[in-house]
Each structure stands twice: as structure tokens, then as C-alpha cells.
Amino acid sequence: MYYLIVFFFFMGAMLLYFSLAERYRIIDRPNERSSHTRSTIRGGGMVFVLAILLAWLQGAASWPLALAILLVGGVSLLDDIRPLHQLPRIGAHFLATSLLLLDLGQGASLGAWIPLLFFMLIGWTNLFNFMDGINGITVLYALVALGSFALVPELSAERNLLVLLALASLAFAWFNVRKKARCFAGDVGSVSMAMILGYLMVKTILLSGNPAYLFFFTIYGLDAVITLLKRLIRRENIFQPHRSHLYQYLANEAGIPHVQVSLAYAGLQLLINAIWIYGIGMETFQWIPSLAFVILVIPAFLGFRYWLIKKI
Fold first, then answer.
1. Do residues 53 and 62 make contact, with C-beta atoms less than 8 angstroms apart?
2. Strand partners, 27
3. Which of 66, 132, 137, 211 is the most buried (most CB within 10 A)?
4. What's the pTM value of the predicted model, to 2 decimals?
5. Can you tell me the distance from the alpha carbon of 265 to that of 137, in angstroms, rounded to the nearest whole number?
6. CA dihedral 241, 122, 261, 42 (to 10 degrees)
7. CA 141 to CA 76: how far, in whole Å?
8. In this predicted structure, which of 113-122, 239-248, 301-310 has the lowest mean pLDDT?
9. Mean pLDDT of 253-264
10. Listed ranges 22-31, 33-42, 101-110; the one with the highest mean pLDDT
11. CA-CA distance, 198 to 126, in Å (whole number)?
């Protein structure tokens, strides 16, 4: 009953935000680089920040995590309302990442790993943000990740946090996973969720000692990293909007409906996670299955990407 009340609380918060967004014109207007064709409310992902604050009030989230997400979410929401200079955004990301590492370092000696973890969290946050381009893709992928993390024994203490985030995601999905979305996550949603998922991933690896949990982010990782590398090779400005992710080719050039593409991404990632959890096993890190997985998946992804682009 409690979680049902919380779900409707998030739904109410979304509806209240819609009225404010319409009043103050927090609208995403399509351009030549967009994958949508009509103006849509931006910033609906603020509900993810709200979930973290509620978790903190209940003692399910630490103050560094809550402050980090509130900071980066607040700056990102301002950027959704009126584009900011890169300096405050970069500063917010760096400070929020430092707070996450402060939290992760409690009870664990990060030592020389701090620079690498900092780089990974910053990189993941930006890659995840780049992937937020069609209806449903961010929230469906996030739900798969949250559900997978709920099955990790080492994260049993985070179950209430995961449930609150899942309920907020379901509330957002109600308005976003549609042919004509009522709202987009905006930077406030994609950046906040990216940092939350990055935090959970690093915590999982630190507690379990198993880096194979990184495969929980396989599909997003492949599409984001390979696209980034190709744009760097072509000497493009990687901070400028573009339409060269695989999901964008599928939704735009191939004409596959957004929600179908998003479901395919989430479904494939769910299948991969199920194979690792129930098939291979995550009790310890296994080199041979991990190498075999990488050797099989990367060429398959590149081959499909090449075939699709050549076809269209």
C-alpha cells in the first residue's frame, strides 16, 4: 500500500511539473538533429531527483548521494529551462562525482583507484546523456538496470532505494513511453539517472570484487563508445547534437517506431543480464566467459551497425 501511495505521489508530481513547464515554456522544440517532430515538455526526469530526496528522507540514501544528485539535477534543470555556459555544468558534474566517491569511499579504501573511478563516472554520465534521444529509451534501460541491481546480493541494503527509483521511473514511463511522448527526461533526468546508475555500478563492483557487472551496461556502452570513436575519427565536434547512434539510425533512417527501438535495447540488455546472472554466474569474476562475451558481442554489434548503415 505504501509503495502504491508513493507511485501516485510521483504521478502527481509529474502532473504538477507539466503545468509549470507549460506556463514557463520549458519545451523541447525539434530541429534538424532531433528524432522527434513536435514540441514536447522537457525536464520530466526531475522525478528521479525527487525519488533520491525521498530516499534520503527515509534513510535509504546517504547525504553525499542525495546532495550529488540534487546538485547535478538542479543545474541540469536550469540548463533545460535556459541553456547554461559549460562551466557551471562541468563544475556541477565534477563536484557531484566527488561526492559520490566520498560516499563510495566510506568503509573502503579507494586509494589509487580514485582517478580511474572519477573518469569512469564522468564518462558514463556523459555517454548516458548522449543516448537520451528517442521516446522510452532512457527510462526502459534504467528500469532494466534497476531490476538487475535488485538481484545483486551485495546491494540488498539498497532495495528500498531501488524500489523508489523504479516507481519514479514507472511514473515517468507512463508519460514518455508513447508514440507521442507527453514529456522528455531532459538533462535533469538523463544526467541524474546516469550518475545514480554509475554510483550503483561502482558500489556493486567494489562490494563484489567482480568487474563483470559492467556487462549490465553492454548495449548502451557499445552504442555510445563506438559512436563517439567514429565521430572522433571523422573529427566532428562531439559536443554538438548528431544523429549517428545506432538507435538513431534505427528510429530515423530505418523508420522503426521509437518505442520499438527502445524496447529492443532494453530487451537485449535484459537478456544479457539474465545470461550473466542465471547462466554464467556472478559469484566470482570468470575470465574465459568474459573474454568470449567481448569477442562475440563487439563484432556482432559492429557488423549489424555496418549492415544497417549500408542498407539505408
1. no
2. 41
3. 137
4. 0.94
5. 7
6. -60
7. 20
8. 239-248
9. 94
10. 101-110
11. 11
Alpha-carbon distance of 185 to 191, in angstroms, equals 9
| 181-214 per-position pLDDT tens digit | 999 999 999 999 999 999 999 999 999 999 999 9
pLDDT one-digit tens code per residue, 134-159: 999 999 999 999 999 999 999 999 99
Residue 170: the pLDDT is 97
Distances from the Cα of 200 to the Cα of 57, 124, 150, angstroms: 19, 12, 10
Residue 107 region, left (φ>0) first, then alpha (ψ -120 to 50), else beta? left
**Position 105 pLDDT exceeds 90:** no
Q: In this structure, what C-alpha cell is assigned to residue 35?
A: 528524432
Tell how strand 40-41 and strand 27-28 pair up.
Answer: antiparallel
Q: At how many degrees (to 10) do helices 159-176 and 137-149 cross?
A: 160
Q: Is the pLDDT of residue 43 over 80?
A: yes
118 band by pLDDT with thresholds 50, 70 and 90: very high
